Amino acid sequence: MKALSVTGRCLASPPPADWREQLTQLLGAKPRRIGNWAELGLYGAMLCLADAGEKTLPLDATLMLTSRRGTYAATGAALAQMGDGLPMPLTFLQTQPSQLLALLSAQMDWMGHACFLATAQPQDLLRLANAQMGQDGVLLGCVDEMDGGSSNWLRLRPDAPEKHDFSASFLAWMPPASVAHGV
Description:
By secondary structure, this protein is of the alpha/beta class. Helices cover 42% and strands 19% of the residues.
């Protein structure tokens, strides 16, 4: 396993009361036509990148996103709309967690390897990220709407093996329930 260093982080579990206003400031405009889950993800990812001193990811970085329950609120809304006919197009799009990856890529003007993953243990996500990341590291995110919401992100870069052991930081990044019950 490659040694990694944490160069940026956002631990928003739950985010502050004014997180939407902060997101508008980070983006330069209020996000439109996206759901709460995607807004939470944008908020955390942009703060993490700012903490790392980056506005975008290098082309050879990887973007990996996970969630304990995904877009369950939007999925519930789409299922309720199905009872009245067909779900509205924007509601349906909000059920797709990979939409956040497209939003982040567009916001950062970045094209690279990005994926949404389901995993039972946070360590599994780390192992996969470590195996698949490019030479410029990885941006890892875990976004959830449960319990007031959370948007936890780490910006990791390969490092000299003797410099850093961040396993405690990685486990602190995941909300406690996700460590006990899977991501």
